[in-house]
Write a structure and sequence with these properties.
- It is built from 14 helices and 32 strands.
- With 731 residues, it is an alpha+beta fold.
- β23, α7 and β24 form a beta-alpha-beta unit.
- α7 packs across α10 and α10 runs antiparallel to α11.
- The longest helix has 15 residues.
Length: 731
């Protein structure tokens, strides 16, 4: 059993996680179930010569290129804390929804490159040259990307470049970007100042024609340029108002009313299989003081199976209490605690009075304790039935499903929810129940949960460590607590079958105060000069807006094309469709798209390999071509010199066996978490051919009912060939 070394007794907890991208010596402290219930890593930094971030924030996604240079002193290599002989670890702290797309390192006599390759090609990649199989493995944590850098000479200068992207957090009416720029103690060279080391350039693109508003209180910034839809700022090296902390930038979007905008780029030039023009539609919520929210009928369905024991159950209960506190006097609610059996707070929806909420809090203490196995379908059916029995007039019915387990009837659950959403709403209900899902740990099927929320026009989130369960689930509840526009529909005049319109997410989700709507897509020939967006307000009235479509000029400062901004959502959409329909051919399409854009997915992996410095340019040229790349022929040592990396921080298709065995759901041994998949918003159906709109206020391309996914029955003539897609999937 491992014990904490005496010198660790009073160690600052900041050494247990890297605070910025950099080179570290690492010591892994194994879980001993007395001092710690999971592995911890001590990070001792090298000396940082430079830390440079080039950031492009495109609407709700940030694309980051980080270039950093470190000097590795001999004392670090001789440290007993080192991962292996003459080896260091490059570690990058990142959002659990972030995706690393490339990593490279250069020393005088060694170059390391990376490439996305099909999983089928990784069977012989052992990565022994990277010290991966040494006595101290690389750190494993869903919020840390790590790679071993082997054979580092004393006092060597190491240049590292890493690219990644992540969804922006939306909080208090603004998108927020955070860069990990806190230098750890001992990393700043003697006599150097922070402003000599840290450099940040941030370019922000919005969907509207005016310059984007930005705010930065963490660091002094200066405006570089501002133009139609673009604002660029850089950290100001002349200022003395510097502090050693993370870089935080806010991009406010709240306004007095609901606003919508559309932007598109021309069709791609050159030889390409897809000649459609990419576009993005943005719908922003109003300031909560300026709108009337819907009443809500909220049903919490909380997993209490044995695998939820300990911190997961405590975190879920903490969030459940916060959810109850978010209810207003106009709302109703109910709770189901489920394992293989179910217990309900009430047989009917309960008014959200102070007395009822206090009684529910007491009920949670007695009934939301871990036990049993997992059955999701039964309580979901019951929630839909109870919500339909005595509907609250004008209210939006919301179902929250919280689980850490995988079940063997997940496709049946999705099909059941599709039947609910495709049928007319029950008498008295203004709209169908919305389903929000929250996954805990690595054993639940996050594709299933994301698909379920997509079908139910709700939101989805996850936590991959126990300490994140409460905060992440509270964030989901806060984001969805105030719906302001439901049953959102898009109208694209003249979009016939020949337009080959593809949109995602599909169906378009509701608009919440805490969750703007982003719809991305492609269309042959481009969008018309204007389009329409419709929805339903809390008053029951219809909201409609005619939205001009702006061309994206890029202002010569952007490197990320519009069609890549939501490529992760498109890949997730196709992946979920392949899972739901069990379509192996669709998996091949996902793999091809992943390789084309260099974005890892469940069927591909990011791999690193040492390359002869003389061949570095050849490798870069091969990567730019896209598609599959035989990297073993470039790697020093061949296949044995290639290491499979964990580029994504999420979980995959779940593990029913582990759930049935009541395994600790993702918390603890995180070794298999890295290298799998996480699920930001955007799963939908691929390649939708939308029918022709008669005019902007006439027939809408996306009806409220029907057309809810690739396995639904045909929905009639308003959507062109969606019926064929659905028929193929069901058949």
């Amino acid at each position: 059993m491992a014990h904490r070394p005496p010198e660790m007794a009073a160690m600052d907890s900041s050494v247990l996680k890297p605070s910025c991208p950099g080179l570290y010596a690492t010591t892994i402290l194994k879980a001993d179930y007395q001092l710690r219930d999971h592995d911890e890593t001590i990070y001792t930094p090298a000396e940082c010569n430079s830390l440079e971030f080039n950031v492009e924030c495109h609407l709700s996604t940030a694309f980051v290129t980080c270039k950093t240079q470190w000097m590795v002193p001999s004392r670090l290599l001789k440290s007993s804390a080192n991962q292996g002989k003459n080896s260091c670890t490059f570690a990058l702290p990142m959002n659990q929804k972030g995706v690393v797309t490339s990593i490279s390192a250069k020393m005088k006599k060694m170059h390391i490159q990376s490439c996305v390759v099909p999983v089928a090609d990784t069977g012989k990649f052992s990565g022994k040259r990277f010290g991966r199989n040494g006595p101290e493995p690389c750190p494993v944590h869903p919020e840390v990307f790590a790679i071993a850098i082997p054979n580092v000479p004393a006092n060597e200068i190491v240049d590292i470049e890493v690219t990644y992207f992540q969804p922006l957090k939306f909080e208090d009416g603004a998108y927020i970007f955070e860069a990990p720029t806190t230098l750890p103690k001992g990393a700043l060279p003697q006599g150097a100042q922070l402003k000599d080391i840290v450099h940040i350039m941030t370019t922000v693109r919005g969907a509207r024609p005016e310059p984007v508003m930005v705010e930065c209180k963490s660091h002094p910034v200066t405006l570089v340029q501002a133009g139609p839809g673009v604002t660029q700022v850089m950290i100001d090296p002349r200022s003395n108002k510097w502090g050693n902390g993370n870089y935080l930038m806010r991009m406010p979007v709240w306004s007095p009313s609901i606003t919508a905008a559309a932007v598109q780029q021309p069709s791609p030039k050159g030889p390409t299989a897809d000649t459609r023009a990419p576009f993005i539609i943005s719908i922003s919520p109003p300031d909560p003081k300026s709108c009337a929210p819907f009443a809500r009928s909220v049903f919490f369905i909380v997993d209490r199976s044995g695998s939820m024991t300990g911190k997961p159950m405590a975190g879920a209960n903490q969030a459940l209490l916060a959810g109850l506190s978010s209810l207003g006097p106009q709302d109703t609610f109910n709770i189901c605690a489920f394992d293989n059996l179910q217990e309900y707070l009430s047989e009917d929806m309960v008014p959200a009075s102070p007395a009822n909420i206090n009684a529910a809090k007491g009920w949670i203490e007695g009934h939301c304790t871990a036990r049993g196995t997992t059955d999701i379908l039964t309580p979901l059916r019951a929630a839909v039935a109870i919500l339909s029995k005595r509907p609250l007039p004008g209210a939006v019915p919301l179902i929250y499903v919280v689980t850490d387990g995988a079940v063997d009837n997940e496709r049946e659950i999705c099909r059941y929810m599709q039947e609910v959403m495709s049928a007319p709403p029950p008498e008295g209900l203004m709209t169908h129940p919305r389903v929000c899902t929250f996954g805990i740990g690595r054993y639940c099927n996050h594709y299933f949960l994301k698909m379920l929320s997509q079908i139910g026009k709700g939101l989805s989130d996850a936590a991959y460590t126990d300490e994140r369960v409460g905060s992440q689930m509270i964030a989901l509840i806060n984001a969805s607590r105030t719906p302001v526009l439901t049953d959102v529909m898009l109208g694209i005049p003249g979009a016939g079958e020949s337009s080959k319109v593809e949109v995602y997410p599909f169906p378009v989700p509701d608009l919440y105060i805490g969750a703007p709507v982003m719809v991305a897509g492609k269309i042959q020939g481009g969008l018309p000069p204007a389009m329409s967006i419709k929805g339903r307000l809390a008053s029951g009235e219809e909201w409609e807006s005619t939205v001009p479509v702006a061309p994206d000029l890029q202002n010569n400062v952007l490197n990320i094309p519009l069609d890549k901004v939501f490529i992760k959502e498109r890949i997730d959409m196709l992946t979920a469709n392949a899972w739901l329909t069990n379509n192996k051919s669709a998996e091949a399409d996902v793999t091809a798209l992943s390789l084309q854009y260099g974005v890892p997915c469940p069927h591909t992996k990011l791999c690193a390999f040492e390359v002869d410095p003389k061949k570095s340019a050849e490798v870069e040229a091969a990567k730019k071509k896209g598609g599959a790349m035989k990297i073993a022929k470039y790697a020093v040592g061949g296949a044995a010199g290639v290491m499979v990396l964990g580029a994504l921080a999420g979980a995959d298709f779940g593990n029913v066996g582990a759930s049935l065995a009541n395994a600790a759901g993702g918390i603890g041994d995180l070794g298999s978490v890295l290298g799998s998949i996480n699920l930001p918003a955007g799963i939908a159906i691929p390649d939708i051919d939308l029918g022709v709109c008669g005019d902007m206020c006439g027939e809408i391309c996306e009806p409220v009912a029907g057309c809810l996914g690739p396995i639904l029955e045909p929905c009639g003539g308003c959507i062109g060939s969606v019926g064929d897609v659905a028929g193929d999937a069901v058949g």
